[in-house]
Amino acid sequence: NAGVIQTPRHKVTGKGQEATLWCEPISGHSAVFWYRQTIVQGLEFLTYFRNQAPIDDSGMPKERFSAQMPNQSHSTLKIQSTQPQDSAVYLCASSLLGVNTEVFFGKGTRLTVV
Amino acid sequence: QQQVRQSPQSLTVWEGGTTVLTCSYEDSTFNYFPWYQQFPGEGPALLISILSVSDKKEDGRFTTFFNKREKKLSLHIIDSQPGDSATYFCAAPVNTGNYKYVFGAGTRLKVIA
Known about the structure:
The complex is a heterodimer of chains A (about 110) and B (about 110). Chain A is mostly beta strands and about 110 residues long.
């Protein structure tokens, strides 16, 4: 079990460019989450998929952020027109469905917008 | 929305000592409180968790305490080791499905040999 796999581990984009982050959840996990981690804001919930369906995107900045889960083996987080304040570590996580199940995080993608 | 306050922000202890981290939360509706451990370059990993029906849960050198009346959590690490040096986060659910969590700001622990 390789755990949650995120690629790339590091990404540098110029201001205004698009960034796409990839996540492969643990096989068999039907709950997939995206979080953002910064020094100032800490860990922030972005969005949640259950059985590939978007359930809660309440943490997503509405205008430039989007997330998809086209199949059970991968999810993407896309940021259009990246801004310096988007610089953060983006963490993908997955878990089995159910209440109080353990959530497994990937190692994250460090996005730097210059 | 549920707020979680964690202290201290950072902590240094000697090897073999006891580490105590604390969190306070606002909404007592929910019933599951996990602690996560994060090493540099890694994602957070579940360390220990507790249900609100319990006041204590132990796992080896790690023990978490839950005080429902005071709305407080604590994590105790006995016989602290240099390998315990990491950032620790408490978390609390913010919805009934327990899929969305709010995290404390984290405590950066350094254990000195």
